[in-house]
Amino acid sequence: EAVLRLDGIEKGYNHGKPNEIRVLRGASVLVHPGEVVALVAPSGAGKSTLLHIAGLLDTPDAGVVEIGGVDLGRAPDRARTTARRAQIGFIYQFHHLLPEFTAAENIILPQLAHGISRGAAEAHAQELLESVGVGPRSGHRPAAMSGGEQQRVAFCRALANRPALLLADEPTGNLDPETSERVFGALMGLVRGRGLAALIATHNMELAARMDRVLRLDNGVLVDAGVTT
Ligand code: ADP
Ligand code: ADP
């Protein structure tokens, strides 16, 4: 069964006004467990809009948004928030780590909020940090870490509560090409190791080609980009 199913998603802004814009015009996608899908789109095509709808942060005008087989597109806010916290991890171009806390604490805190015991949360944080090569940095605050290290900590935080679905918007877009390459490898290791379903937006076609499938957002619909790996 698909972890994420978007079917016929329509979304626009400023409905009924002269500056009305239709962004999504029937976008559909299925992402299964263990499947990593690249989302490639020119700026302004609606990539963030699509990721926000898939992440239950925004509602579509029409269409189905299923997470783990449950239609949540128009579910009450509480059900959407609960599903988002339990099932979805987010990664952005910028890390958004809490600056006053250490790397480990940034990964422990969301677990405590989720009802995990401190001991289990600490062990999981350490396991995550070690798996992306920043175990020795666990006691450092973000400001004391390099950009690539900060972003790897952000990956760990996104997976802290063991989501089934990972949504990422240009996860290495803020890094130089060499660091981006290395950090992307760490992300893929995490995602593959945990059998996650992932939808990862990127402008980098070399990174996109390392995923299982490449989709292009074209005129409001998702089309197979036909990239062979
Ligand atoms: P991308 O992430 O691909 O750059 P977005 O999803 O951010 O694209 O935006 C798609 C289009 O929708 C753009 O033309 C943008 O200006 C417009 N848009 C996005 N959010 C809003 C909003 N809240 N109100 C009005 N227009 C918006
Ligand atoms: P928390 O559990 O910290 O209160 P939420 O349940 O509100 O967080 O959101 C879960 C995740 O969704 C957050 O980690 C954040 O990355 C992302 N998120 C929440 N609101 C927004 C938003 N308005 N724009 C982008 N991302 C958001």
From TrEMBL:
Protein keywords: ATP-binding, Nucleotide-binding, Transport
Annotated signal sequence range: none
Entry annotated with the keyword Transport: yes
Entries under CDD domains matching the protein: ABC_MJ0796_LolCDE_FtsE
Record-linked Pfam families: ABC_tran (PF00005)
ABC transporter domain mapped to chain residues: 4-229
GO biological process: lipoprotein localization to outer membrane; protein localization to outer membrane
InterPro entries to which the protein is assigned, alphabetical: AAA+_ATPase (IPR003593), ABC_transporter-like_ATP-bd (IPR003439), ABC_transporter-like_CS (IPR017871), ABC_transpr_LolD-like (IPR015854), MacB-like_ATP-bd (IPR017911), P-loop_NTPase (IPR027417)
UniProt GO cellular component terms: plasma membrane
Record has ATP-binding as a keyword: yes
Matches recorded under SMART domains: AAA
GO molecular function: ATP binding; ATP hydrolysis activity; transmembrane transporter activity
Entry's family note: Belongs to the ABC transporter superfamily.
Name of the molecule in the record: ABC transporter ATP-binding protein
